[in-house]
Structures are given as C-alpha cells and as structure tokens.
Write a structure and sequence with these properties.
This protein has 355 residues and is an all-alpha fold. The protein has twelve helices and no strands. The chain has two domains: 173 residues, no CATH class; 167 residues, no CATH class. The longest helix has 34 residues.
C-alpha cells in the first residue's frame, strides 16, 4: 500500500474513532441531565450546555497533570456559569451583555497559543460566547443558587464521562501535519511573527464582533445573534486571512444547506415534542461523524440542529429561512472583510482552522 494512502487511512480511522468518542460523551452527558431533570427543573441553557461541553472538554489535552486538570475544571466551570447567565444579561441590559460578549470573544482569541493554562481560559471564553449566542434571550430560568449548582453539575458530568471514556478506550493520537513543529522548536523570529499574528487576530475578532453586535439588531431585530455567532465561528481557530476566507465559504455553504434542510422538515416536528429533540440529537450525531470529512458537513448539521431547536421552542423555521440565511451570510462576510482589510495576516494556511 502506498505510504500516503496508508497514512490517509490511518488518519481517517483515528478521526472516526475520536468522533465516536465525542458523540458518546455528548449523548451520555445529555442523557444524564435528562435523568436529573426528573428531580429538579432544568432550563434550556443547561440543556444546550450539556450538548456543547463534551465537544469542548474532549478536545483538551488528555496528558494534563492533576494540577492542570483542576485548573481546567475551575476555569470551564466559571465560564459555564457566565455562559448560562449571558442570555438573561443580554435581555436585561443589551449594552453590558454585548460588551461582555465582545470581551469574551476577544479573550478566546488572545489566550490561544499562550501556554496550556491560558489556552484553557480561551476555550472557556469561546464556550461562553457560543452558548450565549445560541440560547434564546429570556429572563426566565431557575433561581440563581440552583442554577449555579446545576451548571457545575453539568460540568462534572461532561468531565466525568470524558474521563471514563479515556479510561475505557485510550484516545488515538492526532496526526500532525508535515512541517508542523512543537512550539519549543520554533525560532525566536517565528515566535514573534506568530505572536504578532495573534494580536492582529484578536483585534479582528473584537472589531468583527462589535460590528455584528451593532448592525445585527438593526438588520435582524431579535435574531441578531445569528449574525454575531457566524462572525465569531469564522474567525475562531484561524489566523491567516486565507484560512478565514476558506472557513467563511464553508460556513456559508454549510449553513445555507443546513438551514434549508431543517426548514423543509421542521413542519414534521411539533413544538415541545420529544421527537424534535430526538431528531436534533440524531442530526448532531451524524454531523460530528462527518466533521473529519468536511467542515461544511459539520456546519450544515449544526445549523440544522439549531433550526430544530428553535422549532422545538415554537418558532416557525420556514418563515425565518430568509432572515437566518441573511444573518449568517452577513456575519461570515463581516468576518472575512475584517480579516482581509484590518491588520491582515498573510501567508499560507498552517491548519484547516475548522474549529
């Protein structure tokens, strides 16, 4: 067998195995929270957190020392509490909420690549941004002490299930692209160049999110969060402007396909129907499996899942089709424009950047 073909098959096999682990951790976390909801009230923010957290925790390095594991747990728990409170804060005071949203988005970008402890904080900040923009903005929810305790319980569930899966089936090593080197092997000039690129990327994230937060409410009213989420995801995990353009195009194609597909089948599922949640989880499971194949597949599945989530809450997905497509497109175009013209980082993509 040719070496390149063998390497590709090994990479595909490892990706499939890691994707299966991610799906298992997510389903176990959501299932555990569903059992917990039989005894205590669980609101929509906590349910979405139970879906998102395993996707984040399982991507953290599994060779952490105990001290690093404790730090990661504390940081993710604090950021999760912030995440479940941000939607209500946005409803109560949009200016303060948007300010924290932009700050969290910038922090998620700036902290990456500055050591593992800082990277954990960056991951947590990114989680807070995602959850705040996905969750509907309402004042309703469980009382604050119970809410905080339940949030920490969801974090415990995510860490616990990922840890159990690590113990049962050790993770497969992730293939490192040829030409990539550990940070310690980089020359000082290369490190300086990357640090400068990260500073530029942080400015770009701040500006794109600020533009999305300012223009979104004017253009899309209560659905401005779709535009801000699209801008954040396009810039998240990318540095070079070619990466941003590539990811932006994938997001436009995938989001459009996912939105149209979900709108076509949304009428089959009623609001507050368990079948809607089952379909949502099924689509999300398949999209996680397809993520190594192509980023657009992942985006399509995630967007379709979010459309079903809003259908579950009683919104008409078909009626919102045009608004959703326009908002997602606006956010992606904003991100690409800022990356291309504001402190652009030129060069060849160093990675897929598809996070």
């Amino acid at each position: 067998m040719p070496p390149k073909l063998a390497q590709g098959l090994t990479r595909l096999r490892n990706s499939a195995r890691n994707s299966a682990r991610t799906v298992a951790a997510m389903l176990l976390s959501v299932g555990s929270l569903a059992l917990l909801s039989k005894f205590v009230p669980v609101d929509i923010e906590l349910s979405i957190l139970a879906v998102l957290l395993p996707l984040v925790v399982i991507r953290l390095p599994h060779d952490f020392r105990m001290s690093e594991r404790a730090i990661s747990f504390a940081v993710i728990a604090l950021m999760s509490i912030l995440a479940v409170e941000l939607p209500a804060l946005l409803s109560w005071n949009a200016v303060v909420g948007m300010g924290l949203l932009i700050l969290a988005a910038a922090a998620s970008k700036w902290l990456r690549g500055r050591g593992r402890a800082f990277a954990i904080a960056g991951v947590g900040a990114g989680l807070a941004v995602r959850l705040a923009l996905i969750t509907p903005q309402t004042h309703a929810g469980t009382n604050e002490p119970t809410r905080a305790v339940l949030t920490i319980a969801v974090v415990v569930l995510a860490y616990g299930w990922v840890g159990i899966l690590d113990w049962l089936v050790p993770r497969m090593a992730v293939h490192r692209e040829r030409g990539a080197h550990p940070k310690s092997a980089l020359h000082a000039a290369e490190l300086a160049r990357r640090n400068e690129a990260r500073r530029s990327a942080t400015v770009q994230m701040s500006l794109a999110m600020a533009c999305a937060c300012l223009t979104g409410p004017v253009l899309f009213a209560d659905h401005w969060t779709w535009s801000a989420l699209s801008a954040f995801l396009v810039l998240n995990g990318t540095l070079v402007r070619a990466e941003v353009l590539n990811k932006g195009v994938h997001r436009l194609v995938g989001a459009a396909a996912g939105t149209v597909g979900a709108s076509m089948v949304a009428g089959v599922f009623a609001a507050n129907s368990p079948a809607t949640l089952a379909a949502l989880l099924a689509i999300l499971t398949v999209s996680i499996g397809l993520r190594p194949v192509g980023y657009a597949w992942w985006v399509a599945g995630l967007t379709a899942s979010l459309s079903l989530l809003y259908s579950y809450q009683g919104q008409d997905a078909a009626a919102l089709l045009g608004t959703r497509l326009m908002a997602l497109s606006t956010g992606a175009v904003l991100a690409i424009a800022v990356a291309w013209f504001v402190l652009p980082v030129r060069g060849k993509p160093q990675s897929a950047g598809m996070r």
